[in-house]
Write a structure and sequence with these properties.
Elements lengths: L2 H21 L4 H4 L6 H25 L4 H11 L7 H7 L4 H30 L7 H25 L1 H29 L1 H7 L4 H19 L4 H12 L3 H11 L5 H28 L6
Length: 287
């Protein structure tokens, strides 16, 4: 097994462990939170799958971006919520039930929405974008649905065990992810630096700030919901984005570096938003 394969395996393990820890505390009401609220669902859908793809097209027209950045923005705009985002939403005072409901609902819908979005992007960019339904479904199944369901089953059958292992599982998943993320960034540092220029950082900051703003505005009257939708709109699943980019542009390894650059910029910009919201909403608001 190569070092790259070991790193990818560690990334997948950290995500599975973290989502499993969500399931240890989750209820069916949490999972169905978005589905049972049509207005909430509509606002979330518009912010994530209409506003962001249009923004990716607009930024491509406004800036002379590296081709890798163009592809990364398209791929990210069509990707669902990343499974690890709930921790950040909780720190900002977001409603945990809404965050989990978005994770599940938009993840399942992305199996259909992402291919449709790629068809529309083909028309907008004049380039062919495709990704098999099975590839998206497999990522969502392995990274979200199965570990979440496993955690909920343990909670239902062994509630005391679930209560004891929920915190350690979450810590293990987080520590593993941080270590792996640092290794990936270090290994890709030269490719990331090579992409900076031609308005790249400005475009990425604009993409993220616009996502935060759209989600915050469409999040509804409750500040806890605005936090969740803002972060969910601006933060997308890097695994699906990389898969989409790899399938469509197999000879352009720089696209992965572009997505990593987006993650770094997103981390910095989102920290400002989270700090602001913690002062307004309060940390770890109750669901």
């Amino acid at each position: 097994m190569t070092i790259q394969e070991m790193i990818m395996l560690a990334v997948q393990a950290s995500i599975v462990i973290t989502v499993f820890s969500y399931g240890l505390d989750a209820t069916l009401d949490d999972v169905l939170y978005v589905v049972r609220r049509p207005r909430c669902f509509l606002r979330s859908f518009v912010a994530m799958f209409l506003v962001m793809p249009l923004l990716a097209v607009g930024l491509d027209m406004a800036f002379d971006l590296h081709h890798e950045i163009e592809v990364a923005l398209v791929a990210l705009s069509l990707s669902p919520v990343p499974p690890l985002l709930m921790k950040k939403q909780g720190k900002a005072g977001g409603r945990e039930s809404y965050g989990l409901g978005l994770l599940v609902t938009m993840g399942v819908l992305s199996v259909v929405i992402t291919p449709i979005g790629m068809m529309l992007m083909t028309q907008a960019f004049g380039r062919q974008f495709e990704l098999p339904l099975g590839a998206i479904a497999l990522v969502i199944l392995k990274a979200v649905l199965l570990p979440l369901a496993a955690g909920m089953v343990v909670q239902a059958l062994l509630p005391r065990v679930a209560a004891r292992i929920a915190r350690p599982a979450a810590v293990i998943g987080t520590v593993l992810l941080v270590v792996v993320a640092l290794l990936i960034v270090f290994a890709s540092r030269h490719a990331i630096l090579a992409l900076i220029g031609n308005g790249t950082l400005l475009a990425l900051v604009g993409f993220i700030v616009a996502g935060l703003s759209a989600g915050h505005w469409l999040g509804g009257p409750d500040a806890r919901d605005r936090v969740v939708l803002a972060l969910s709109t601006a933060s997308r699943h890097p695994g699906i984005a990389v898969a989409l980019a790899t399938v469509n542009f197999p000879n352009e390894p720089g696209v992965t570096a572009a997505i990593l650059l987006y993650l770094l910029v997103n981390l910095l910009v989102s920290m400002v938003y989270v700090t602001w919201q913690r002062k307004r909403v309060g940390p770890a608001a109750a669901a």
